[in-house]
Amino acid sequence: MNKPGEVLWKLNRLVFSITLVGYKVCEATWYHPPRQQSFYSLWFISKGKGEFIINETSYPVEAGKLFFFEPSMICERSTDLDDPLEYYFIRFTYAAAFVDKEKWNFSEETDIPFPLSGMYNIQNPPHVMNLIEQIHTLRKKRGATVAMKRKLLFLDLLLTIIQDFRSQRITGNTTNAIDATVDYLTANYQDNITVDVLAKQAGMSVSHYSRLFKKYIGYSPMDYLRHVRMDRAKELIVLSDFRLKAIAQSVGFHDEFYFSRMFKKVVGVSPTEFAKRHKTKETLPKK
Question: Which of 120, 3, 116 shows the shortest CA–CA distance to 59?
Answer without folding.
Answer: 120
